[in-house]
Amino acid sequence: MNERIQDLAQIDRLVHEPVRLMILMILQGVEEADFLYLMREGGFTQGNLSSHLAKLEEAGLTICRITAKGKQALSDYSETLVAALRPRRAR
Prior knowledge:
- With 91 residues, this protein is an all-alpha fold.
- The chain has helices at residues 3-9, 13-16, 18-30, 35-42, 46-58, 68-85.
- 19% of the residues are buried.
């Protein structure tokens, strides 16, 4: 398996899901938000937001504000994604 594929295999699937990624990015920008703010900013339905917040909270990434663990997970995710997309030199 080439390096780019290996980089993608290491991506955090909890963060990679688009709705959860959006939630973490919104919270990173404001530090703390209530449920209605997240619904409006992300364009989420109540049920969709609730289920994704529950998964993030269960993993210790958020409690309607981004935790240190959540910030680190988002940072790690970004680094992995950038590394996977970075052009590699031909050998």
